[in-house]
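Input.
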Amino acid sequence: MNKEIELGDKVRCIHTGFEGTAICKSEFINGCVQWAILPKINKTSKTSKENIMPEEVGIDSQSLEVVSKKKVKMIKKETGGPMRYGIKSRGF
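Output.
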């Protein structure tokens, strides 16, 4: 599989099977590269509290494989619109 990890890719640890989204890359002065992986929220678990964001886990890049690449969304550009002025605009 492609070893090149980018922000937003879904990755898996080859040792533990931990899966999540790559949200942060850290490069240390000794050459070690780690990724912060954020797991998917498990809403089916009744023992976990609702609306709690899971913590990310730092994993070395050598231990990760890409499961799926991030999806790129095309953004429709707007042509603009009328100017909006604040309540206290200078000169008016």
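The chain has a mean pLDDT of 79.
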